[in-house]
Amino acid sequence: MTRRAWRWLRDSTWALLAVVVLLAGGVLTWLPIPWATLANRLGHSLAIWGIFRGPGLATLLGTVLLAMIVVARMLTWRRQRHSAEKRRPAVRPLRWWWVVLIALVIAGVVALALWWLMGLAEHSLPKDEPKARIDAVRTALTLGAGLVGVVALVLTSRKQWLAEHTQRHTESDAAEQRATELYTAAAEQLASDKAPVRLAGLYALSRLGQNNPTYRQTIVDLWCAYLRMPYAPPGLKQHQENTSERSITDTTRQDDDNQPLLLDLAPTLAEAAGLSLDGAEQHQQEGQVRLTAQRLLAHHQSPHWDEHGQPTNRAFWGGEHGTGMELDLTGATLGRWNFRNCSVRTANFTETHFYGLTDFRKSRFHGGVIFLGAQFHNIADFGGSEFHHHTDFAGMQFHDHAFGEVWVRLDHDTPVASMYPKGWTVRETNSGDGHEGRWGKLVPVDDTTPDDAEGTGSPESDEQTQTNE
Question: Where is this region: Disordered (predicted)?
């Protein structure tokens, strides 16, 4: 038996009902009751009542249909209530009227069996009638005891299920509390002034998200927030430092009495306090921390699709829709960004600065993606990437680029028109990969084209541009 079948058998109410019916049938079979005679008497009574005639059959059919409708409505109402009340208790206390109802049903069954058996005893020989009556009472009581045993078995099973449910609930609460503590500790590590501690926090968050899917989007948001923190790449920072040094030199020439003394004493005081003023080394370490955050982010967004479109990377965080997480890197500074073969739900790269080689090859964006005002300070490669929804490339600036084959879906259901980079437009064509819908390829156009002069244009306007050409 597979694990899924065992889980269904364990949690199914119908399976429990089937077991109860089988047990009851087995108990009744072992009882010394003339079932054939009882069946004949029951059929004779039903015939006398007219149940097999037209009106009786109509009444019976109507009763059965009414019972089926009531049961179906109750199941539907219960399912809707369960969906609406996600936080309601999974187990309800046993109502007192259920106990009374079960007792009345058992008493009724025993009384009915006793009545039938007494009727059979009346047709026995006069000398055997007392013994037959005693046997009838004994059989009826045995039947009642069997039914009570079945009820006791059901209650015992329910008690065991309640104990297991309580244990699972306790373990779930403990695991949730443990995950919260680990997340808090890892987030505090990211606030450390030591690079190794921050690296440990990043890897701790990665391990936490791998074992707790509900924390994955929160962890991705935290990584993105860390990358959005102000940061200057080494080359840009060196340029800023040179500019600052020239400014300090000019100021020093104007005030030669006090400033040299301060510059000479600062390193000495730092050494006495056990501090380090090596800002270049700290900046380099911070760069490594940010690269690690970028690599972890890309690693958990790489599905490694197989030929059936299923992810093979166990570290892939598919999110709620199975297509990836949501990224918000607005205004971030990214260096050597490698997002090749990655898949995300949505992404926001508004005014993001990309330094070094930027690799978006064969990446998939299943939701909206925004590159509004993004700047690429080196080669940007988008070869083979796919945009399945609204795209906004308005205001992008390239120092060098290699778009390659970029595919954009033209029939997405958003009313907002897509915006393409300056000098580029979309030409509708068949992707040849079996994708559904209408697709187009991002192709360069003349910069003097009216629709593309500002780097904007919807798919419809781009198609018109290609037609005019």
Answer: 235-259, 428-469
